[in-house]
Amino acid sequence: MNEQTAVTQDTATEAPKKPVLPDAQKVLEVKHWTDRLFSFKVERPASLRFRSGEFVMIGLMGDPHPETGKQKPLLRAYSIASPSWGEEMEFYSIKVQDGPLTSKLQHIQPGDDIILRPKPVGTLVHDALIPGKRIWFFATGTGFAPFASLLREPETYEKFDEVIITHTCREAGELTYGRELIESLKDDELLNEVIGEGFWKKIKYYPTTTREESAKMGRITDLMKSGEAFADLGVEPLNPETDRAMICGNLAFNLELKDLFENTYGLEEGANSKPAHYVVEKAFLD
Predict the structure, then answer these.
(1) What is d(CA 252, CA 280) in angstroms, rounded to the nearest whole number?
(2) Where are the transmembrane segments (predicted)?
(3) Which of 45, 60, 150, 156 has a C-alpha 20 to 30 A away from that of 190?
(4) Chain-centre distance for alpha carbon 4
């Protein structure tokens, strides 16, 4: 009798089990950079292989349906910020208070599970570009994420003599994630060993802000049109003979750069199936 009572009590006090997420991966680390931006790392599935610059679908379960109680996954395309050789997977996200996914995702903690669909795709890969001497990475906001991957990819430095990364944000604090990552490359013993001592000297970093006062203010497209960006960097304007480029930003930014590339600099858009001078990540929305 006593034994039976004990079993009943243990059962009654058991915490309700959390629903098992499909394609679940455990959150390892979360870091909040500003009140609008955060990054997080999750376990990498042993079978998942990707090319630096690609993205995957990640998410959480939505709220239960008021009538049926059923839940559907809320998924969004996220560029992988970690390099292809990394043992963990890193992501960089904006917080949208009323966003269906990010309103929930911003509250994740180490130990939580998220959905990670193991099917990486994307156009911001070296395979989509023909050989050149200099590569440009153009980002706004969290569009820096795929370049965080490519800046730690040995192939980037094997294929190009110079790597220029421009990052345009509204406020100076929004540049912190990218700036700290680039600074960390100097002391990364593994990368210096694998790629070559001082590989980071090939990088030219050009951060700008559009609202808050900073060392360099202005939209990168305006700074290119005026020639100021090229003068600051000490380089010639883009040339199809030598320059290759990747774009990851908001839609207006993407379209403006696309127009500049094609009608001012004579660059042709490439794809995995037909490599050319530049590529755009169309799945990204800042």
Answers:
(1) 12
(2) none
(3) 45
(4) 55
